[in-house]
Amino acid sequence: MTAYGEIAHHGLLSAEDQQLVSAAATSVTVQRSNHEEFSAEPAGLSSVVEQTSSIDALLHGAYEGDVSFGELSRHGNFGLGTVQHLDGEMLCLDGEFLQVRADGSVHGIPPETLTPFAVMCHFDPDQSYELTSPHTWEALQQQFDEISDNRLVQAFRIEAFFDWVSLRSVPRQYRPYPPLSAVTATQTNWQAEQVQGTIIGFRFPSSLQGLEVPGIHLHFISADRKIGGHVTDLLLQSGVVQVQQLSELHVEVPEGIHVAEADSSEEVAAAIRGVEGHSS
Ligand SMILES: [Zn+2]
User: Fold this and answer.
1) Poorest-confidence range of 57-66, 80-89, 102-111, 218-227?
2) Which domain holds residue 89?
3) Which of 7, 48, 83, 225 would suit a FRET pair with 168, their CA atoms being 20 to 30 Å apart?
4) How far out from the chain centre does Cα 182 lie?
5) Helix (H) or strand (E) holding 59
6) What is the pLDDT of residue 54?
7) CA-to-CA separations, 109 to 80, 187, 196, 218, 242, in angstroms, rounded
């Protein structure tokens, strides 16, 4: 494992990136490893977020990973991401991995399946509160911004009844892989209405842009496991929110993936906003 401070020597992070990462209070470790090393890493620290690859790698069409869901399960029981070949939206709830394909169908994921991008933690909330009045997506985001320490990563779990949730997923890709911005032009969108379900997600400080999607990234699954996807908008009726502050981020970067391309330019920020479909 390599501390981020040593990464610049290996050309993994540009000087600019290094400054950005230094500005975050979340301790960041970027490691270039093979999947044997990743799977051998100890699990169980409740303050740690584990991530395979970077959002920047995904933006550049790195849709094949070397980490299996079996290995991922040793790094947490809670998380989100995608499936090999960008085959839909993935979420992990209480240790169960679920895939939502572009046709909206929901599937369990076999442990031998691989992923190019996943964010995982051991969910152990240190804060919980009830929402007794309706909340829009904007109101919810604002609330999360207010309770978040902007120097740390937060994990969120919302159990609620929703008037509606707008969802999307992306279709499986084939070589040569197009960039993510081209893929999201073909994404499919749908809406769950009058539905009980769970939203899980993370909020990343803007200082981690390039490694992460800055801001809030949420995935939804209905209580009956019939409808899910990446959340683009919602109207929440009532529910319970649980929050966990995470002070350590480990990013595993497979061979051949460069994070040095990550930058904080408005162009990249706009590209990420575009593919994530967030209104902020
Ligand atoms: Zn997503």
Assistant:
1) 57-66
2) 1-280
3) 48
4) 20
5) helix 55-59
6) 77
7) 13, 21, 22, 19, 25
What's the 132 CA to ligand 1 centre distance in angstroms?
26
Q: How many A from CA of 151 to the centre of ligand 1?
A: 22
Q: Cβ neighbours of residue 19 under 8 Å, at least 6 residues apart?
A: none
What separation in Å is there between the alpha carbon of 220 and the centre of ligand 1?
9
Q: How far away, in angstroms, is 184 Cα from ligand 1 center?
A: 11
Give me the phi and psi of 56, to 5 degrees please.
-65, -40
Q: The domain spanning residue 235 has which CATH number?
A: 3.30.1330.80
Q: Measured in angstroms, how far is the CA atom of residue 230 from the centroid of ligand 1? A: 5
Count structural domains, the chain. 1
In angstroms, what is the span from residue 254 Cα to ligand 1's centroid? 21
Phi, psi at 53, each rounded to 5°: 65, -170
Ligand 1: centre distance to CA 250 (Å)? 19
Tokens 């990136």 belong to which residue? 17
Amino acid in position 206: S
**Owner of token pair 């909330």:** 125
Q: What's the pLDDT score for residue 96?
A: 97
Q: What is the pLDDT of residues 97-132, one digit of tens each?
A: 999 999 999 999 999 999 999 999 999 999 999 999
> Could you read off the pLDDT of 39-78 as tens digits, one per residue?
555 555 678 898 888 778 888 888 988 889 999 999 999 9
